[in-house]
Amino acid sequence: MRALIIVVFAALGLGLAATAYALRGEPGFDSVRLGPWTTWPHLGGADIDPYERAVVASEGLAPMGVNEGLLFVARADDLGAPLETRCAYRLAGTDLPARVWTLAVYRIDGRPQPNVADRHGLTSAGLLRASGGDFVIEAAREARPGNWLPLGDDPNFFLALRLYQAGASALSKAYEGLSLPTITRGDCS
Description:
Layout: H1 2-22, E1 32-34, E2 37-39, H2 50-59, E3 69-74, E4 87-93, E5 100-107, E6 121-123, E7 135-140, E8 147-150, E9 157-164, H3 168-171, E10 182-188
Parallel strand pairs: 7-8
Antiparallel strand pairs: 1-2, 2-3, 3-9, 4-7, 4-10, 5-6, 5-9
């Protein structure tokens, strides 16, 4: 009888530990990666998997609906190195297939990254662009000319790129043609 009780408690403990592990970090198993960017196209839809649903509930997330747009997250640069505020980054791209898009800096815990400019993101409507629509964004702690995305002092961060009114249902089936901004690491202090 004693062995049965030990086995039951061990199984219960293992089950709880596995559940806690599954609910940490990024939601679900149906992520799509485009370079350093990751998205979860079903997160705001009715066909969300149980693990995604549990992460959304436990983290208090409010994902965009499938027809509202898409969220892309980058935690590393184009070479796979984790993003760090001690480094500067150059994000380069061309117009994205959305009516409006935003790019914001967040701490690892999901809160906005405090910074000297008290500005946490940029919108597509306010960017300086080349004549062909290309843009360059400099992400750094110190102010930069042009499109500057200020970084704070917390050592690690992630970037959130949100495409609004992007025809997300069509995009979620045609990622091959989608070109997201590159993230190139610059000088580190």
